[in-house]
Amino acid sequence: MAADKGKQTTSAADVARDWQLEGGVGFLLRLLEARYDGLYQSMTRQSDITPRQFGVLMALYQLGPLTPSVLAERISCDRNTLSEMLKRMVARRLVSKKDNPHDRRSLQVQITAKGEEALLAVIPAAAELQNIMLAPLRKEDRAHFLKCLLAIAKAPPPDSPADT
């Protein structure tokens, strides 16, 4: 057993010595997110709607009123994070909550006129940002790149080590 432990340490050390940060998914995603966030702030020239809030407003604009659970699923956000975000957005009157006409036990969230105005004001810059972010790729590679990112983002979690 002790020999196995030493072998793992050596193996991990070998991997660490050869690791290229620029080839690591986590490192690259962090760089990509930092680039996106910086460009989003400079190009939209506003601080009213964060990129995550943009997703909430876009989903509500396109789909109409949604329950928080459906909205969370649609924007791939956990319910607790969404709940906190919605509190801030309701306080700023970007969204409102109303009784769900299909289920009296739940609420629906909907975009307000102020939220729609704020969203539509950001849309041109957001569309241009998409073009800038994808500009380093050949036009024929852009759709494939986005498809690959989506596949990675939506992949089910791997089986836990205990299950193997």
UniProtKB/TrEMBL annotation:
Annotated ranges, domain HTH marR-type: 22-154
SUPFAM superfamilies according to UniProt: Winged helix' DNA-binding domain (SSF46785)
Key words, A-Z: DNA-binding
GO molecular function: DNA binding; DNA-binding transcription factor activity
GO biological process, one term: response to stress
Domain of life: Bacteria
Protein name: DNA-binding MarR family transcriptional regulator
Organism annotation: Bradyrhizobium elkanii
